[in-house]
Amino acid sequence: MYIYENKEWPFFIWNNDEIISLLASVRKQQGLLLGKMQTLGFEVQNDSTLSTLISDIRESSAIEGENLDTGQIRSSVARKLQLDLNGLVRSDKNIDGIVEMVYDASNYYELPLTKQRLFKWHSFLFPEQPSFTKIVIADWRDDSTGPMQIVSGPIGYERVHFQAPAAKLVGKEMDLFFDWFNNENKIDLFLKAGIAHFWFVTVHPFEDGNGRIGRVISDMLLAKADDTEQRYYSLSTEIKKEKNEYYRILEHTSHGDMDITQWLKWYLNTLSKAIKTSDKKLDLVLQKNRFWNEHNNSIKNQRQSVMINKLLDGFEGKLTTAKWAKIAKCSTDTALRDIQDLIAKGILVQGDSGGRSTSYELRI
């Protein structure tokens, strides 16, 4: 039995004793992160929002097997946020559409979620027909090609993981969803975000794009919980890291009774990881800001700026003269002069090993 076939549908239940302490912990993390961000300037907040949205858009699409160009996402998001950044490139209309959808959800989180708004998001997600197959765009699915199923495996050996409600039921199901979503009920917004995510993907109202739109709906409620248009953590990025478990817990919860405790626990734990990841990234941003506030006038060329930023972002392995020359696209003599200049200024220090294996690191 699928969960929507229960006579109690859609009245979900969960065990508060298993949820309450976890919810309180995640709420505390949220408060500490937002408090830290509020003490910082607009530049840091904008940088964090830009980074979060880029990661969120890229990873949400990657969950569905679609790899988007990071440079194009960065350019599209920067233009939408009206940020004056160097190196912006032209972005495809499908990327611009996804950015429009995410921006609408996170910036206008107080507005009701309606059929018309979801249709607009769907048209943003699919500005034109996909090349592989024709789908219904900006309208509910019609099941003209058969039941909406989540299937894996080779032809002839398919496994049906889930079958959504029949298309004729979608309109009614979504009306119930909208009524609940837009109602100012007493459910904590973090829990409501998790419920909305699961409920939406269970109904699966569109022919394609349900996962991405479901995560955007969840993010809309998280933005409302944060009470800010700025986005500082990405749930989709953490979901991508645990993609297999994400699909497993969704499939498990979609079968059986109305108890969604295990899904909510997984959702809150993943949200906790997302906030922790953001907090670590923020520490790196603050470290970079402190560094550049102290040393900005000491850097004499673009090569040094690029290489220092790579070190501040967590350079993998040891930085040698040869690596500097290769990355900065200069001669080894030029690279060595750049390095020696920074050592003399107390910005770089030489590692313990010598000779060809001599390496350098930042003095932080």
Bulk shape: elongated
Oligomeric state: single chain
Rg on CA atoms, Å: 24 Å
Question: Which class do the helix and strand fractions yield?
Answer: mainly alpha
What does it look like?
The model has no long low-confidence stretch (mean pLDDT 93). The chain is elongated. It has 14 helices and four strands. A hairpin with a 6-residue loop joins β1 and β2. The protein is mainly alpha-helical and 364 residues long. It has helices at 16-38, 42-63, 70-80, 93-107, 115-125, 167-182, 189-203, 210-226, 235-241, 243-254, 261-295, 302-312, 321-328, 332-344, and strands at 149-152, 159-163, 348-350, 360-362. The strands form two sheets. Strands 1-2 form a two-stranded antiparallel ribbon. It folds into two domains: 3-287, Fido-like domain (Fic-like fold); 299-362, Orthogonal Bundle (Arc Repressor Mutant, subunit A).
Overview features:
elongated; 2 domains; mainly alpha; about 375 residues; single chain; two-stranded antiparallel sheet; Arc Repressor Mutant, subunit A
List the helices and strands and how they pair.
Elements: H1 16-38, H2 42-63, H3 70-80, H4 93-107, H5 115-125, E1 149-152, E2 159-163, H6 167-182, H7 189-203, H8 210-226, H9 235-241, H10 243-254, H11 261-295, H12 302-312, H13 321-328, H14 332-344, E3 348-350, E4 360-362
Antiparallel strand pairs: 1-2, 3-4
Helix pairs in contact: 1-11, 2-3, 2-9, 3-4, 4-5, 4-8, 6-7, 7-8, 7-11, 9-11, 13-14
